[in-house]
Design goal:
Elements lengths: L2 E4 L3 H12 L5 E4 L11 E4 L2 E4 L6 E2 L3 H7 L8 E5 L2 E5 L2 E4 L11 H12 L2 H4 L7 H9 L1 H16 L19 H10 L11 E5 L5 H10 L4 E2 L6 E3 L4 E2 L7 E4 L8 E3 L3 H8 L3 E9 L9 E3 L9 E3 L11 E6 L11 E9 L5 H14 L2 E3 L1 H4 L6 H17 L1
Parallel strand pairs: 1-2, 1-13, 2-10, 7-16, 11-14, 13-20
Antiparallel strand pairs: 3-4, 5-9, 6-9, 7-8, 11-12, 15-18, 15-19, 16-17, 17-18
Length: 397
């Protein structure tokens, strides 16, 4: 065949539909699960949708992506929301992001946070640290680090933060003492809006419905319940399927039982990749009037985030909590969903490892794509854009 696509999540489904758009139907998609959607699958719980791998939303700021996706789920099937998110600090709630909303604290706390920001390494000219734990304090000051960023990231990743790098945070602007002081005096936030500041969510479905519709158009090309267990780089043979001209891999490189035709360096690089797992737990009696989701840095609470689905899933009730698998203590009667591959971990040596993997695979016309193929924490809308661009590039070639 011409194209073999591993994975029927957002990346693989976008490639498949893009190929069909270009008049190419010589492709097959292998999907490990019994249905499509990958990390964006949904289930019905208590009569309403619940996103089983955590909340997934479509950002309004990618018109090319939205135009493509709205072909499958028309724009009148979506609601648009202005994102409202909070951080829970004890009994107090502060708007996200923390550093833009220090003015919501009491005056004494404002002063303490301002003094800490003034002493932050990014404002004093101190050398930038190489590990994530030290970088947090360098970037935000001791108070925000201790109250929020350190405990929150410890919870979501459940690894030693000193093993994580800082390269993935470099796009964040420095926390300016002057801007923060102005914000406190004017009693209003400063800085740019967070990702998904405005987002779409389906009116009558969970996020998974969109991907089921993309899958339906290419259903004759998808083989379900078929994980890719082995891959031969030289022949591009996957499982017992004869080699394709091009293989696009959206599955985790660490999920293969066997990789053949690869160098020792390639295999060593795959062995260095790390990830974290999460559990999504349904909370039937937890709701909010206006907040879409809330972050919980308190180490004594197992979950790191609650999504109040009644604020974005029209007519629904209840919420769901996201919990790192290492922190989850199951109780009788829980309605919970486990996702083994949830977040790629940005370890210090990850960029070198991923570069080695993608380079050698690419030399054999095997392309890593998406959150797991590229081992990057991409949102689904960015994945769609990357998949469209890669498909067009491969067709053009």
């Amino acid at each position: 065949m011409r194209f073999l696509i591993i994975g029927a999540g957002p990346a693989g489904l976008t490639v498949a539909n893009r190929l069909l758009d270009k008049g190419i139907d010589d492709f097959t998609v292998l999907e490990a699960q019994h249905e499509a959607g990958g990390l964006c699958r949904s289930a019905e719980v208590d009569g309403y949708p619940l996103d089983i791998s955590g909340g997934h939303f479509i950002d309004v700021r990618r018109p090319k992506v939205n135009e493509f996706l709205f072909r499958f789920m028309k724009d009148d099937e979506w609601n648009s929301y202005d994102r409202v998110t909070k951080i829970r600090l004890g009994e107090q709630r502060i708007d996200y992001p923390f550093e833009a909303n220090i003015w919501q604290l009491d005056v004494d706390s404002e002063v303490e946070h301002l003094m800490a920001i003034a002493k932050a390494g990014c404002n004093t000219g101190a050398a930038e640290p190489e590990n994530f734990r030290e970088w947090i304090t360098w970037k935000l000051g001791e108070r925000i680090a201790e109250e929020y960023m350190l405990p929150y990231n410890e919870k979501i990743f459940s690894v030693d933060l000193e093993t994580l790098g800082t390269y993935w945070m470099n796009k964040l602007p420095n926390v300016s003492f002057e801007d923060t002081l102005r914000s406190c005096l004017l009693k209003e936030p400063y800085g740019s809006l967070p990702g998904h500041a405005k987002f779409y969510y389906p009116k009558k479905h969970g996020s998974g419905e969109l991907w089921l519709r993309l899958a339906d158009r290419v259903k004759d090309h998808i083989v379900y319940d078929t994980p890719a267990l082995s891959i031969d780089l030289e022949s591009r043979r996957v499982n017992d399927i004869s080699g394709a001209e091009v293989v696009i891999n959206t599955a985790p490189w660490t999920s293969f039982d066997r990789i053949e035709g690869a160098s020792d360096g390639f295999m060593e690089a795959v062995g260095r990749l790390q990830y974290s797992s999460i559990v999504v737990k349904y909370l039937p009696d937890v709701e909010d009037e206006a907040v879409n989701w809330e972050y919980f840095p308190d180490r004594s609470i197992d979950h790191h985030r609650i999504l109040y689905r009644n604020t974005f899933a029209e007519g629904s009730k209840g919420s769901w909590a996201e919990i790192n698998k290492k922190r989850y203590d199951p109780s009788e009667g829980d309605t919970a969903f486990e996702t083994e591959y949830a977040y790629p971990l940005n370890t210090i040596d990850k960029p070198e490892a991923v570069c080695a993997i993608l380079k050698e695979a690419g030399e054999h016309d095997i392309y890593g794509l998406g959150r797991w193929g590229e081992w990057e924490h991409y949102n689904s809308d960015l994945v769609v854009e990357l998949a469209m661009d890669l498909t067009d590039k491969l067709i053009g070639r």
